[in-house]
Amino acid sequence: QVQLVESGGGLVQAGGSLRLSCAASGSTFNINTMGWYRQAPGKQRELVAITTRGGSTNYADSVKGRFTISRDNAKDTVYLEMNSLKPEDTAVYYCYANKRRWGTLYDYWGQGTQVTVSS
To answer: In sequence order, which residues have a C-beta less than 8 Å from that of residue 56 and are 6 or more positions away?
Structure first.
């Protein structure tokens, strides 16, 4: 099992910045993808940014140029630097990780951290 614990959410004014962190613990061997999803009220959960162990990244179009994902494999931790925040970035942000074991892909989720951007 893998446990994911997020930190760094909060309230910020539009144009401001926040940095989210997510630390993985437990059976972290062979974790491949780590990243962030978000879910706003009344909307489906959506991809924000993900990164593989090898360093490949993928961003939602809505955050490209404003958000940066990074990862410390030695610490099993992933970060999300969020700049130029907009009210529409308001959501619960969930940390995500996956690993493959015996041909099966396992998904893991954090509890979520609230990000609120005021106009």
So the answer is: none
d(CA 102, CA 86): 42
The 8-class DSSP code of residue 87 comes to G
Residue 89, phi then psi, degrees to nearest 5: -85, -5
pLDDT tens, residue by residue, 46-96? 999 999 998 999 999 999 999 999 999 999 999 999 999 999 999 999 999
Q: How far is CA 71 from the centre of its chain?
A: 10
Report which of 74, 78, 72, 105 is spatially closest to residue 93, judged by C-alpha positions: 78
- The type of residue at 62 is S
pLDDT beyond 90 at 101? no
Report the DSSP beta bridge partners of residue 50: 35, 58
CA angle, 79 as apex, 76 and 81 as ends, to 5°?
170
46 pairs with which residues across the strands?
Answer: 38
